[in-house]
Design brief:
4-stranded mixed β-sheet; 9 helices; 259 residues; alpha+beta; disordered N terminus; 2 domains
Length: 259
């Protein structure tokens, strides 16, 4: 191939393709693609602004193959992590997430207690307690540090990972439901700020904020789900956080790989 058949723009596309292929796990397909791209890049030291149509067509085809192979790798990783991290009661957990997603914002959705209990007790989670007047500005730093550095640390976020945000409103009035859900949205925004999309990792899939199913919102119900010391731990407050007897919003953040 003549070194003068490659334009500056085409050369840049070759470089991007070579870089994309180099990030994947070695496979026969990706190795061949990488070799071709690097070879063309080395032969193209003299560039012209008139690209060869044959080369452009070939690169277009290779770009399509790169996208397809990237999707195949992501799907394999999703299956692997889902099977690794979601072995117990997968059907109940998946069913709970799907039912929460079907709910209409602001509408009270009942939930089968067995499904809810299995999900809420088995999946990694964190809580954030917010005063109804101060909102997200009153979130305790220790809660946010645990959320960012423990529950959502980058090495635990996989292609299969979904982050579910559930909001326990401070009251059952229309205004309280709207304000509580808005506070849940601030938590979503903060998570996306912590885990932005990168060339090697898309932004995490966040579900919600959804209101906690109506038959799970009261402290009386939660005290049955989390008995004894578990319920005491759930209601422990840090300095500056609203007391359980005060109007407060509890934001539940769950990390799950169940598909």
């Amino acid at each position: 191939m003549s070194p003068r058949l490659v334009s500056t723009q085409t050369g840049a596309r070759i470089g991007k393709l070579a870089a994309a292929v180099s990030r994947w796990r070695p496979t026969q397909h990706s190795a061949v693609l990488g070799l071709l791209l690097v070879t063309w890049g080395c032969e193209s030291s003299y560039l012209t602004e008139q690209p060869d149509p044959r080369l452009v067509a070939t690169i277009n085809a290779l770009e399509a193959k790169v996208v397809l192979q990237g999707q195949e790798i992501a799907n394999l990783e999703r299956i692997y992590w889902s099977e690794k991290n979601c072995q117990k009661s997968k059907d109940k957990i998946t069913s709970f997430v799907n039912e929460v997603q079907k709910g209409t914002p602001g509408v009270c959705l009942p939930m089968e207690m067995a499904k809810a209990l299995e999900f809420m007790n088995s999946q990694p989670k964190a809580y954030v307690y917010l005063d109804k007047n101060r909102g997200f500005s009153g979130a305790h730093p220790a809660r946010m540090t645990f959320l960012r550095d423990s529950l959502l640390k980058a090495e635990d976020i996989h292609p299969s990972t979904r982050i579910l945000i559930l909001v326990q409103p401070y009251a059952e009035t229309p205004v309280a439901l709207q304000e509580s859900q808005a506070m849940g949205k601030t938590v979503v925004d903060r998570i996306l700020n912590w885990l932005p999309a990168t060339p090697n990792r898309p932004a995490p899939t966040i579900l919600g904020p959804h209101l906690l199913p109506c038959n799970l919102r009261s402290e009386a119900v939660l005290s049955k789900m989390y008995t004894g010391s578990e319920f005491t731990k759930l209601n422990e407050t840090l300095p500056g956080e609203p007391d359980p007897r005060q109007p407060r919003v509890r934001i539940w953040i769950f990390r799950t790989d169940c598909q």
